[in-house]
Amino acid sequence: MGAFERNKLQGREKRLGTLSTYLGTAHNLAREDDERQNIRTFSQATFDEVIYTLKSLGDIQDSVTVIHGPSGCGNIKLQYGAEGSTSSWYSTNLDERDTILGSDEKLRRTISLAYQNHEPQIIFIVATPVVAINNDDISAVVLELEEELSAKIVPIFTDGFKSKTAINGYDLVLHAIGKYLVQGGDKEAKSDFLNLISLSENNADIKEVLLLFKELGIKAQLIPQFSNYGAIKNSFQAKASIALNHDEGYFLGSGLEENYNVPYIKTKVPIGYKNTEDWLEIVAEAFNKQDKAKAIIGGQFFKKRKLLEEAPLSGLKIYINLKTSRAISLLSLIKELSGEIVGITIDEVDKLNKHELENLKYDLPVHVANGQLFEVANILNKIKPDLYIGESGRTAWVAKLGIVPISVDHVALYGFNGGENLMNIIHKAIKNKALINDIWQTHKLNYKNIWLKKSTNWYIKQEVK
Amino acid sequence: MSQGIEKSRNSCALQGAISTVLEIEGVVPIVHSTAGCTIQQMIGNKVSNHNGFDIPATNIIEKQVIFGGGSRLREQIKNTVKVIEGELYVVLTGCTPELVGDDVITMTKESQEQGESVIYFKAPGFKGKFHLGYEGVVNAIIDQLPTVKEVNTSKRADFVNIWGIIPKQDIHWQGDLEEIKRILEGIGLQVNTLFGLGQGIEAWQEVPAAALNIVFSKRGIRIAENLEKKYDTPFVNVQAIPTGAKDTINFIEKITDFIDIDRERLEKFIHIEKAREEYWLNSLLNLYVDYNFQRTFGIVGDESTVYSINSFLTKTLGLLSNVKIFTDPMQDENEILANNTYRTDTLNEIQEILREHQVELVLGSSLEKDICEELNIPWQVISFPELEKVILSKSYGGFKGGVRLLEDLSTILLSHERKLQQKNKVNLQLLNFVEL
Prior knowledge:
The complex is a heterodimer.
Chain A (H helix, E strand, L loop, with lengths): L11 H5 L5 E4 L12 E3 L8 H9 L5 E6 L7 H7 L6 E3 L4 H6 L2 H15 L3 E6 L1 H6 L4 H10 L3 E5 L11 H13 L12 E6 L4 H14 L2 E6 L4 H5 L6 E4 L2 H15 L3 E2 L7 H14 L3 H10 L1 H10 L6 E6 L1 H13 L3 E7 L7 H5 L6 E4 L4 H11 L3 E4 L13 E4 L10 H14 L2 H9 L6 H5 L6 E3 L3
Chain B lengths: L4 E2 L6 H10 L4 E6 L4 H6 L19 H6 L2 H14 L4 E6 L1 H6 L3 H10 L4 E5 L7 H19 L10 E5 L9 H14 L3 E3 L8 H5 L6 E4 L5 H11 L3 E3 L6 H13 L6 H28 L5 E6 L1 H13 L4 E7 L14 E3 L3 H10 L4 E4 L4 H7 L3 E3 L16 H34 L5
Parallel strand pairs in B: 2-3, 3-4, 5-6, 5-7, 7-8, 9-10, 9-12, 10-11, 12-13
Helix pairs in contact in B: 1-7, 4-6, 7-10, 8-16, 11-12, 11-16, 12-16
């Protein structure tokens, strides 16, 4: 059965052997049994698939999202709205009565309301734990309303507990998009454009990549971020697909390949000179633009040599806590800039990216955790790096350990300017540590000392089946 | 029956309870729910001592949904007290464990028997909104604190507690508490604000010692009633944070009905504060008249916030209130609202009401930006959510807050008016037949 045909998708663990809890080294990961799951007996708050789903739907034009659950389940949309996400959202606002008597009528009415107010082309329905537990029927409502409304209604069966990892949300979104929105006609009629699959990249990164495509003379069409119904529908006509982050976008890429013969080109995240050069060559080959790629790479030669000769990170110990493939590619950039990497924390590891870690020329400590800053604090307290590179919301706190925090959510790391962009903020952060030092002197993390001294994997156990 | 809502601004009880607890120093929430619940709220709290990822949470998975999550919770509580520094741990349960029926009470009791300071509050999002989370968890702490800590029940005649100002949902909560404290200390009282800067478990242990509980919104009433029953403490419901001199003086007078206050000191204090507002109002007069500050306005927000700002704008600044929209959940099913007063939290209804009422100015949240741009009228953020400006200790409450609001509102009216003039100039040039 093709990737898009299944009614519901299994959790990512079952499909890809995804691990969301691990402590060891990159090379030892090979010895981890895919079937074996680790769990934590103490854990901290983290992202879940509902949040990732909402994140990835926020910039699909002419769409509205209906979050089917109690009103708090969509609260993060306020924040995404503030950050520029354009699509509106509704909550079915389930109350106690609905949890007992069922919620399909409310879902029906909320979808109709959303349709009346916005007349969107697509209405996404995002399920939540409450409707999953009560087994409320979403599909029947969708079938019924699709007859009445001239909008595509796309249910996404997020439940928030079947998978331990938030990235499962991207798979669910891409499965639903593939199933409900991509509409194939003639499988062989291909046009000269590329599907550029993006779920979570920031605008700055996307811009860098689009500029490269422009230089190459390749027409790149973003999906699903920043796309619309037409673009998604016609994605089966593309000459090829690539995902900006294979971990996140593979499902759509391989689904389009499997169902519509659109070749899916697997690439590493283009961070760092080497990775960007490789990426450019692979992409160019698919469109017979090797000469142009060569010229672009050649044009970067002196800039690259200058930055590499400066070795601006030499003497600095660096810790990275980022999404998996982003972190792995960043390793290469840090090496190019002569930094020393003392360890990484990544969100999850699975069949899609494990080999990247195992194939690293050097071994390094690897911690797999989405959030779980208590473990990260334990690690940092022991190895005391100079710099910590992480994501928004989970980076600033390292100042309390006297480590310089570098948040890269709003920085363009992709492409040939990534090195300069990164060094631009690192230089400033190192040059004036006034605030960071004051915070270090005056504020303390609220972890007990006894914990910080324990072994980091103290609360990691093998799951009993 | 509740309805579907567009762009809800009221979140849920769990997220209200988490946000409330986090603003008490030394209190650690332990969230028992599915993984994303805590982060949904926390990611938006950019100004906070917590980033969300530092909050203990069970992140329950399918196995615990099917077989129950009680033992996962037991393990989490046991380990939280070993990892996280805290004086009081509050277990907060979300929708999933409440549907599954996890026995949080027994789990809490077990850890109390081990000598740990752990209490609980059930906060499933389907039971209510952010406000309920505040009210509920505050009452849970009041009810359960004595089982794990000593509380001081010997009353002090000059000591008062503040209730009904909800951390985060009242966007100026921190600044409001500071100003209320300053005012009450100014007339010789000791004030327990209970949340924010310098407020920890010690403050909560002193709650029974207060001579009076002062309630600033409907969300404080059940708390004050609870304290009246438990500790015989009387309460006064002032309904809203007073904004500006007139309401603040009324507020002070109301307090004197309950507590003996040195009259001379009080009058001296009021005199100085009132003179300040008078001074600034006079300074603003030219702008007020020349730029026609008198507008009809619509106001959107939690009921108490609407009352306080509406009162100042009409009674002091001479503006004309056309419509009031309360966005917090109704507490009384049989509520009868006055003319031109509505209660709704769904965006398109709010926009529709504002369109119908011919307003020239809107005071509301950042979500009202779109409608104000559509109507081409100025707007000022006074209620949740504020998505554009960073708020640390700003307040529109009390004597100082009134002046602050004058400042902000004048800026907005002035710049709107100037933009309009510039636009008119451009239009004029288009209409003018003179050859350039």
